[in-house]
Design brief:
The chain has about 190 residues and is of the alpha/beta class. Helices cover about 35% and strands about 15% of the residues. It has 7 helices and 6 strands. It has helices at about 20-30, 60-65, 70-75, 80-85, 100-115, 145-150, 180-185; strands spanning about 5-10, 90-100, 120-125, 140-145, 155-160, 175. Strands 3-2-1-4-5-6 form a 6-stranded parallel β-sheet. Strand 4 (about 140-145), helix 6 (about 145-150) and strand 5 form a beta-alpha-beta unit. Helix 4 packs parallel to helix 7 (about 180-185).
Length: about 190
């Protein structure tokens, strides 16, 4: 248990849910008949804007985040659901997530269906570039984006997951998977 911590703040995309896998799955389905198409594996993605998906524009990829079919194939990161269920017995849990209004609406529904009783705080991308306006001073914050972690006032913080272009500059604590998260928060 982390001393003095009441609340755990988890990011959604890339932490709780394997967003990259769902996006790549949709891309591979939608562009399979294109001449320059090459199938992409989700672990081949290392750019924030999915440049590896060469047949689609950034704008096209961004539309996936607002589609029910994206959420229909969205899966938890390995062991995330089980770890969160265990952790919520000891801490308050809040999911802090970026998105535009349609994405946040669909995300809230996905969270209610898959993690009932856990609060989601939606951060509208039109208004905020990071999550620094959320008071996390009594908590622990986990996000896969080093930018969000760096600007947070959380008492404890860590970057989640593998090294990507959007977090490779982070020199602080990194929790690579949900077993690491469970150990960090529960001992």
């Amino acid at each position: 248990m982390l001393k003095g911590v009441k609340t755990i703040f988890f990011d959604f995309d890339g932490c709780i849910a394997n967003t990259i896998e769902a996006i790549v799955s949709l891309y591979n389905e939608d562009f399979v008949a294109y001449k320059k198409f090459q199938p992409i594996k989700w672990w081949d993605i290392n750019t924030w804007d999915f440049k590896e998906c060469m047949c689609a524009s950034r704008e096209y990829i961004n539309t996936y985040f607002n589609q029910p079919r994206f959420f229909n194939r969205l899966e938890f990161m390995p062991n995330a659901k089980e770890a969160i269920e265990e952790i919520k017995g000891f801490y308050d849990i809040k999911i802090i997530t970026h998105g535009f209004k349609p994405n946040l609406r669909l995300k809230k529904q996905w969270i209610e269906n898959n993690l009932p009783g856990i609060e989601m705080i939606g951060v509208n991308l039109k208004k905020y570039k990071d999550k620094s306006h959320i008071d996390m001073s009594d908590g622990f914050f986990l996000d896969d984006s080093s930018g969000n972690i760096r600007t947070s006032n959380a008492k404890y913080k860590a970057v989640f997951g593998d090294i990507y272009s959007w977090n490779e500059d982070w020199a602080g604590k990194r929790l690579c998977n949900w077993e690491d998260v469970r150990r960090e928060l529960l001992g």
